[in-house]
Amino acid sequence: MYHTWMRFFTPGPAHHRLGLVCLGVGLQYGALPTVGPRTLDHHVAVVVNAGTGWYLSPDGRRTIVTAPALLWLTPGVPHHYAPDDGTGWDEGFVDFTGPATATYTELGYIEPDRPVVPLSDATGARAVIGRMARAARRDNPLLEVETGAAVHELLVALRRARADLAPSGEAVLKALARDACLPLSVADHAAKHGMTPAELRTAVRRGAGCSPKDYLLGIRLARAKELLATTGLPVAAVARRVGYDDPAYFSRLFTRRVGMAPVRFRAQQFRAVPGGWSNQVPDPADPPVIGRNR
Asked: What is the pTM of this model?
């Protein structure tokens, strides 16, 4: 015997322009019936929280599914799967589509070539699916936007929970972030970690969904923005602080990526704060009391 709950939605054209829309959400457990063979025209993320089963790929290859795990069902790809007859499994699923799926695939958050993805922990993804289920009440006027926004959050949670993102990969990303503003090339960074540039590219692509160059550039530009917004340093000095000896090159790069020149960014964002900005991230659950010394 199995138990199931599900809702399906039909977002309008305006909702699709948000990038992602949720087409359905469901929670099921027990000895569920076999799914497929079938082919869909949209994406489905099936998060298996407990239990075991199998997935049969179009070429006939059978993969054992052991929770926690993710099944990626992608448009146009036949799929066939089921939990084990004796024990069943506990799953949550989300149907979704939208133009942003192409970008999430490019960044590695959606993996059409890996229909079965082991997870280290499904707790975060299941929490998002639970919120989507609660939002799916029939009288919710914010349904399409709320569930669409949650699809973005779900893709991030699934990316974070992937079991193949080893701690060693996280260490490389943390080291790159620490050294991002040093005047080092990608090859220099790779050599520091005893890696070839190709190995570094693979590690960063797997962990951050982008190339080492883009990963380092994002960190450098973020730091440059902080300096422009919080200090009176000349642009040339800001450029040197974030790893560029040529201020003209830095200004061109900043303008191309940010959409405005450094001097214009400073004019818009400069905040003169007595004592400087705090490096401590505030806790929204414990806001300061205005007008009272703490």
From this structure: 0.80
